ATP phosphoribosyltransferase (Paenibacillus nuruki), 210 residues
Amino acid sequence: MTQILKVAMPKGRIYKKAAELFRKAGIEVPLDVDDSRKLIVHLPEVGMEFILAKPVDVPIYVEHGVADIGIVGKDVLIEENRAVYELLDLGIARCRMSVIGLPDWKPGIQQRVATKYPNVASQYFREQGQQVEVIKLNGSIELAPMIGLADRIVDMVETGETLRENGLVEMETLFGITSRLIANRVSYRMKNEEIQQLCDQLQRVIPEPT
Ligand SMILES: Nc1ncnc2c1ncn2[C@@H]1O[C@H](COP(=O)(O)OP(=O)(O)OP(=O)(O)O)[C@@H](O)[C@H]1O
Ligand SMILES: O=P(O)(O)OC[C@H]1O[C@H](OP(=O)(O)OP(=O)(O)O)[C@H](O)[C@@H]1O
């Protein structure tokens, strides 16, 4: 008997891209969930149940086993370092993690770095042998160097439009980012057939890097 897969799906920009990929793979899931306030979407016809989560919470649901699998950006996976299996690089929501600053930035005595990713930033600057104070923000990170909260930021860049519009420059790229399919360790064993079948279906339609 096939078992229902509980899937932690990130609300926001990844949802649509992930839903398009599922549909390309022949799994008919809704393209949009924004028009409803429902947080759990039952999809018995495809053997799934979507749990609509804040992107950064996806690995938490999966680690605790309330979701069997989930979709999450590599940025969040690295920052959160949760005990989950990473099964597939889905090749969607491609961007990169970078160090960003004002064009006239020079190293000073007291360096401050603002970011949504304090673990990623601390580790990077430690490896570089740079002593910095890391300030955690939750959004609009580009504001920090513009208004003097920090000298530099560590944040995501996709098109570079946000940087251009705010007069900032990309100084260093830390790593590339795409969304990943993750699984709970126990679910991976208990629902192996269902998870494996999903992986096989998705694998065939993963976009090539451009
Ligand atoms: N500009 C971007 N281009 C492509 N992918 C991005 C971009 N920004 C973020 N991502 C990817 O999408 C994921 C979710 O981003 P999104 O902006 O939807 O959520 P969030 O800002 O973390 O959450 P929320 O706004 O709901 O609190 C990120 O973790 C990253 O992997
Ligand atoms: O290079 P671009 O194409 O301009 O994309 C990069 C921007 O997208 C993300 O912000 P988001 O829209 O998630 O806003 P937030 O950081 O305020 O949540 C990221 O934090 C950058 O600000």
Summary: The chain has a mean pLDDT of 96. The chain has two domains: 5-93+178-203, 95-176.
